[in-house]
Design brief:
The chain is mostly helical. 61% of the residues lie in helices and 2% in strands.
């Protein structure tokens, strides 16, 4: 009988091995931020489910009392035509029941926390009658009883339509909640155990097969395992660099307030609605924050989360997001802006920690320095003269004059140490490019070092060179 493993398709696991982050992004912080985001979305969804259930419960009680009011008016139609207001008031008071039944159910924790406790059902019905009477006084119908019944029926229909909308939304959220199996869904299945006791052997002899171990896979071969190890890749590159595409980088530079421009760009470039683009723009934000560019980093974070929200809202997520975010006073604005601000604070805090660590380990920062490799040689600095007929020299002079003032000053001093000091303050790519320009201009040259053997310093250098040459000859003759 084949085993059906489809029930595990909805199992949601957190696997750190498939997380790819930029080298400048702390992997633990990135994973923790992702986990916090998943938990926050799940908590928000559960709160919405509780809110919809609570609102439906209140509406059920309200519909019950409206139906009771209509039944009382229809049962006492003759009396209602002569004393309509009094009859309606008595019907409302009779439907109230006991004080405990008149109170709406207590709301769950977190549901409408910023709103006052809803009024009693009697007050709700009184407010409904006030609206009905206001409408009747405005329209002045010929038969006030018929008009009142019709108006109350309209209110009942509105509440029923609202209940249907809440039910559809509730079903959608519950389907999304049940799509993944989380730790909250764990429960005890079979809470019992059975131990099979060994029975005494009647034959007094041990079976031959009892001395052999039982194998879960009898057809297993050790050679198969060795072959699989030999053919398996030696190394999986799981840390590939995340980088936003060219379109993603253009979108990241759109100002946060320009929602119309962002909407138009997404419409014409729908391929940027991917998780890779979101992560790439967040990496751009991290790099910008490492350079203390707060405004640039905040803008990048805003655009990255904008893509994430549009993607998470489903098929029509783009139109839905921009409709909500551009509606004045909509709750979605507060949620989105808070998410942007929280993400910015996390990245800024982590960037400060990284910059502080780099400052503390300043001596270990990679640098480009110029040194002669061969013993007995030294690097000489020769600046191309200003007035020369040689085209190569003229080209070298143009390159020299293109250098920064501090580098030109260091070269003019003729000291290689001063040149290295300037190179040490530069980033590695810039320093490598500058060294290439120095070679192209012919400013650096490798010459034999002249050693004065009559001085103590010269004798010491000669001795060091002889010792080094002896060590090299010994290592060359050693067969090991």
């Amino acid at each position: 009988m084949p085993v059906d493993y489809s029930k595990w398709d909805n199992l949601e696991l957190s696997d750190d091995s498939d997380i790819e982050v930029h080298p400048n992004v702390d992997k633990r912080s990135f994973i923790r931020a992702k986990q916090d985001q998943i938990h926050a979305e799940r908590q928000q969804r559960r709160l919405q489910i509780e809110t919809l259930k609570y609102e439906r419960q209140i509406n059920d009680g309200l519909m019950k009392r409206i139906s009771g009011l209509l039944a009382a008016l229809e049962a006492n139609a003759a009396e209602a035509e002569s004393n309509l207001a009094g009859m309606a008031f008595r019907a409302v008071m009779q439907s109230a029941g006991s004080p405990e039944e008149d109170k709406p159910p207590a709301r769950p924790d977190g549901v409408h926390a910023q709103v006052e406790q809803p009024p009693t059902y009697t007050k709700m019905m009184a407010a409904l009658l006030d609206q009905v009477n206001e409408t009747l006084n405005k329209d002045e119908p010929e038969n006030r009883y018929t008009a009142m019944v019709k108006e109350i029926n309209n209110h009942l229909t509105n509440v029923q339509d609202l209940q249907k909308q809440l039910l559809d939304k509730l079903a959608e959220l519950e389907k999304e909640e049940g799509r993944k199996i989380t730790s909250d869904a764990y429960h005890t299945g079979f809470d019992s155990s059975y131990v099979a006791k060994s029975e005494p052997s009647t034959s007094g002899q041990t079976k031959k097969n009892d001395s052999q171990p039982q194998l879960l896979n009898p057809n297993f071969s050790a050679s198969t395992s060795d072959e699989s190890k030999a053919t398996s890749p030696a190394d999986n590159d799981d840390d590939a660099e995340i980088e936003a595409s060219a379109d993603g980088q253009k979108f990241a530079k759109i100002k946060a307030a320009e929602y119309r421009e962002s909407h138009a760009f997404i419409t014409s470039h729908p391929q940027i609605l991917s998780e890779k683009e979101t992560d790439g723009i967040l990496v751009m934000a991290f790099d910008a924050q490492l350079e203390n560019k707060d405004d640039v980093a905040r803008n990048y974070i805003h655009q990255a989360l904008l893509l994430q929200y549009c993607r998470s809202l489903g098929k029509d997520g783009v139109a839905l997001f921009f409709k909500r975010i551009t509606t004045q006073g909509h709750q979605a604005q507060q949620v989105f802006y808070k998410d942007v601000q929280d993400t910015f604070f996390r990245i800024r805090t982590r960037s400060k920690e990284i910059n502080a660590q780099r400052a503390a380990d300043g001596g270990e920062v990679e640098q480009i320095q110029l040194h002669a490799v061969e013993p007995g040689t030294e690097i000489k600095i020769q600046i191309p003269p200003e007035n020369s007929d040689d085209e190569a020299v003229q080209h070298g002079r143009v390159i020299f004059e293109s250098f920064a003032p501090d580098m030109r000053k260091a070269l003019e001093s003729g000291s290689l140490d001063k040149v290295n000091d300037v190179l040490g303050k530069m980033k590695v790519p810039e320093a490598e490019e500058l060294v290439g320009q120095l070679s192209e201009a012919g400013i650096l040259s490798l010459e034999e070092q002249i050693i004065d053997g009559t001085t103590e310093e010269g004798k010491q250098k000669i001795k060091e060179m002889e010792d080094m040459a002896a060590m090299e000859s010994e290592s060359a003759g050693d067969p090991e």
